[in-house]
Amino acid sequence: MTRPTIDDIARRAGVSKSAVSFALNGRPGVSPATRDRILAVASEMNWRPHKAARALSGARSDAVGLVVARPAQTIGAEPFFGLLLAGLQAGLSARSIALHLMIVEDTAAEIEVYRRWTSERHVDGFVLVDLQHRDKRVPVLEELGVPAVVIGGPGGHGTLPSLWADDREAMLSLVDYLAALGHRRIAHVAGDEAFHHTRRRIRALKDASRRLHLVDAVSVPTDFSDAQGASATRALLSSPNRPSALIFDSDVMAVAGLAVAAEMGVAVPAGLSVVSFEDSLLTRIVHPAITALGRDTFALGGQVAAMLLAAIDEPGSVRDVQGATPRLTVRESTRAPYTEQEA
Amino acid sequence: MTRPTIDDIARRAGVSKSAVSFALNGRPGVSPATRDRILAVASEMNWRPHKAARALSGARSDAVGLVVARPAQTIGAEPFFGLLLAGLQAGLSARSIALHLMIVEDTAAEIEVYRRWTSERHVDGFVLVDLQHRDKRVPVLEELGVPAVVIGGPGGHGTLPSLWADDREAMLSLVDYLAALGHRRIAHVAGDEAFHHTRRRIRALKDASRRLHLVDAVSVPTDFSDAQGASATRALLSSPNRPSALIFDSDVMAVAGLAVAAEMGVAVPAGLSVVSFEDSLLTRIVHPAITALGRDTFALGGQVAAMLLAAIDEPGSVRDVQGATPRLTVRESTRAPYTEQEA
DNA sequence: CCGTTTCACTAGAGCGGTTTAGTAAAACTC
DNA sequence: GAGTTTTACTAAACCGCTCTAGTGAAACGG
């Protein structure tokens, strides 16, 4: 048997197609008695709306898009991405909105997908991640006039609403903590300078370092990969004026850095304190467990979902929102630095 | 200006709607000259098909579904999932098929999504992961008659085609390797017994142990979490007859186990060899790097995508396929066990 | 040169919904 | 109780595309 259409329901209930449509959508124009009868027939016949048919009549497609331009490896590796995905999902599925995921090669391909999906009416809105300096995707989405929410900022995302984290404040608090422990030589294994947040963190470290009179607060940019994280760590630990504390911009790099320290015979935390700017399972399961600045990525996904749904319902109504301030979870990888006596 | 429809193109090119449709879909019925002219007009007007309209006329929805019933944490944590996703994407996007992702609470919800998406014509097919013993999803998908490909098996997936790995063979090779190094006391931190592959691995270990006359080849089932992986390791390492080698069913548990060993002062690999049944970034970046059985999860995703597309194109044409046999990458976490002299 | 086949193209009926315009009856006005 | 408004419902257009049936002209066959 083929799936029932509203026509079948209409026939069975002895009313017109339109009456069925009204009843099923909770619209006025049918009496309560008729409405109940229609609903009963519909559920008896196990009717479900045909998404495409609805979308064709100008309605929503009930889906949002997430397009990511990253190498496959990164997507598998970073817990951030999976958690964000799960959080988005949770926020969307409550209103049974689907998530269309697309993983592409580069930003050009990403923009092409935005264009295509918009004109095909494939999705009702987009979530934009990995905000970059002078991001080319922003003007395109603005031009397309499609609802979109940016994760990142503040600044650099034009008129699109964003959910942003105060990376500057986070970095300052991190440095304050390490300085309070007595660290004077702090180094930073940073991410990719193409990203806004990386730049902000680097700048914040510089400022804090000046304010607290730290020695050599150097930031080494990387591409976020474990390989570059490891080699940056190796270089820093080999320098004559070896830092006593390292700040890593990602959990993956922090773990890689930890391995380098072990390999070089540098004890953590006795000889080196390690802090990660990102928290996850990774930082928890290694030994020693890594002190990390944690934000609830799952919750973040949910928040973005809510913002995007609002932007779809009422374009222009959504404004920038500052996400929860990340909190430091102290674990086993940080302590006061070596003193001469100990050494 | 509103987006162009085939009617606009028809008017501009001076032909009928149908001629445009034929031309755009590469169907016979138009002369080469007319076809070229229509295509030129279409691209000039920047026309794109309206997905919903196409889908409504009985065509495909050009999307496949992946529904996962797992806690959010797991999805973020396991590289497997992200890599699979990326691989699937790569395989699908070549034919510009979208991936609809849905993360749900439990199997009941998952089945509900299968029902809904099928009757809504939301997707053309499904990918089924985490195959369980007596899996309830299989008969539902069979009943719905929707194309689907299972990752897992062999066996237990009814008439649905599956891409399966030979877990038994893999476990045997692993045990052979450890036995060749001289290990006699091998223990296994297993996954969830609800999963088919976990059961097969446990059975294989038992068989190998009997064949090789190993002592105490015990398997401890867990829920795949780092916490249970850690406590299983703790228990095994505390037993009077401590194993000299541990096999972990997942990378996350292997890393957690490594941390427990460090915490208990058990040196790896000197005092304990560690092997992971799954390879990923995780096993590579920790210290010591973990010897692991690796399969190319990204490629696996691509293979599944290809199978599903074939199943959609020609239902019933796709048969079970055995995936590539995982290969052992030896790293720093394995060596011959302690001998009495060394101890 | 007439009948048949092929070709290039058009008209128009769906696909499964939504929505507007219209209608008959019931319910209010005063 | 005639006129107006409201209510409950129907008919049919419409969304953008696909595809079948049909048409007129050109090409072919003998």
TrEMBL record, chains A, B:
SMART domains according to UniProt: HTH_LACI
Tagged with keyword DNA-binding: yes
Gene Ontology molecular function terms on file: DNA binding
Transmembrane region(s): none
UniProt-listed InterPro entries: HTH_LacI (IPR000843), LacI/GalR-like_sensor (IPR046335), Lambda_DNA-bd_dom_sf (IPR010982), Peripla_BP_I (IPR028082)
UniProt entry keywords in alphabetical sequence: DNA-binding, Transcription, Transcription regulation
Region named Disordered: 323-343
Domain named HTH lacI-type: residues: 4-58
Signal sequence region: none
Entry protein name: LacI family DNA-binding transcriptional regulator
